[in-house]
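This is your field. Have a critical look at the following sequence-structure pair:

***
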Amino acid sequence: MSTPYRDAGRTGQKRRTFEALVAAAREQVAAGDTPTVDGTAAAAGVARSTAYRYFPSQRELLAAAHPETARQSLLPAGAPEDPAERLDAVVLEFTRLIVNTEAQQRTMLRLSLERDRGESALPLRQGRAIAWIEEALAPLQGRLSGPAIRALALAVRSAIGIEALVWLTDIGGLSRDQALASMRWSAQALLQQALDSGPPPAAAG
């Protein structure tokens, strides 16, 4: 397996260069622009040839610039065992992240929808939030099967995130605070429905 360019030799300087490129890309995303490797290199004051060593393609640059890239878990330290409390904590943190980076999220949503079918998926399409939700629902193991928990996580994800925020605010006319409250309510309602009547139909697959 080859060693990534930024992890081989002079790692301190390479890390700073990488972070400068990512920061420049995120600034462009926040402004509603679509960053390119060439444009990001110019904005960061990095040589074009050097930038391509870190990001051989625009797709890889966009993936690194996504606001959620660095997050591994959304559960707080000392997370409770109650699945409803865990789910609410994750949904609250996730929705806050979405609102706090809304400009970037809207741009990434647009770019994700514009990608050709043959291209590799951007983070928004990779469903990384599903893993965070499944982690919140982990105490349900034994009560619900693995596929059932997965189906519930998919249902919860469909009710939260930038897609839901855009609909609730742009179409539904809610404020950001009202939209967050609606998403938290929806997540709890889906959890309770799964516990009372079984998981969503997707579990059958």
The mean pLDDT is 85. The first helix runs from residue 11 to 30.
